[in-house]
Protein 1
Amino acid sequence: MLDTKNPLIAEFLKDHQQFSRLIYEISNLLKANKIEKARERAKELDAVAGPHIAYEEAELYPRLAGLGEKATSEEMLVGQHHEAIDALRDLLNIPTPSEEQLKSIKAGFQDSLTHAEHCGSLISLLTQLEASEQTESLEVLRDFRKQGKNWTDL
Ligand SMILES: [Fe+2]
């Protein structure tokens, strides 16, 4: 079980839950062909995901690798972010996507949902770090939030 009293986990989960909820909502809106509404949500996702993804790529994944976590590779996880951002960019930038484009956008968001579930469980592994390292890691997350970049601007 996730120790939600751990400050690092609690902070990570704040963004993570919003991130996952938005992806889920966008996925459902796309399935219902409500493209305009999906695009509105996608703008929120872009803002929420910026600090979250930056933290994952700069901190979470390298720390997992440092802990010897072999069940999952950094390269694969970052690759999944790239696929997800392609879908997000297409949804934001193509005013009227073709059927083919829409299909790939939908698939991208569907895959993002699976990825998000996975990342949510990986954070618990960081409780193996020394308390001081967890605090450092949390500072990095807060710094990324202060920078406030969109995902598409990383
Ligand atoms: Fe992730």
Protein 2
Amino acid sequence: MTLTQEICNRLHEAALKITDNFCYGCYKVVEGDRCSDCFSDDFMRHLPSKYYDHPVASARLCNSSDTVDSRAGTPGPVRPVGVEYGTDWVVRHLLTTRLEAVDGEEMFEELLDECYPEVKIGNSVFSPSQVLKELDPIAFNIGVDENLQSLAEDGVLFEFDGDYYRLEDLEDLLEELEAEHP
Ligand SMILES: [Zn+2]
């Protein structure tokens, strides 16, 4: 199993553990493997509100595109109620609310400026990143992507939905979640 697959599995396992079984037909959280009213075992995942009230999460919720339950929807500030099939959305919620995606441009700029000398013309001094970004923006953007991909291949970063997260941040988050739900 690759590191990426392993992290993916741990994320989905954590997402399963922190969520409850939810019967959409009866519209309730269900304890156990079957709904006591309709005996269905076709459950949605329900994300408890503490995952919205988490200090790191609530600071960022205003920018999130979380599922908003239409039935529970009330006018005023949007308070998302997480009910949806599958665990992808839970993983997405955890990553976007609890972690900060890396800034690929900034990382590539730092790399260029470490690898190449400054360019001096008369009294003007240009950083290599500035030169490449201004004069060959296409090559710059390709470099940004390639740098992110190679860091992901090296296990420094983890890619999800086009965003990259530091693996060490992700490990910390997973350990935190796994400790809450052993
Ligand atoms: Zn039911």
Protein 3
Amino acid sequence: MLRGKYPLQLCLARGFICEICNADEVIFPWQMRVVTRCAKCGICYHSACLARMQDTCKKCLRIQKRRESIDSTSNVG
Ligand SMILES: [Zn+2]
Ligand SMILES: [Zn+2]
């Protein structure tokens, strides 16, 4: 059922919502003046928002925390 062309959706699929300010506007990696992309997980934030968070990526933090919790539970067995 490949019915073709949804250019708008394709564009949106590459966009991100800034998780820090949760603004409705979609941001894109190529908006380099206002958007910063996390080198580790590839998610995008407003540069200003990320700076406010001392460059702490929320997603990386989440992944890290989950990894820690998996480690601790596997230790318990
Ligand atoms: Zn933001
Ligand atoms: Zn990240």
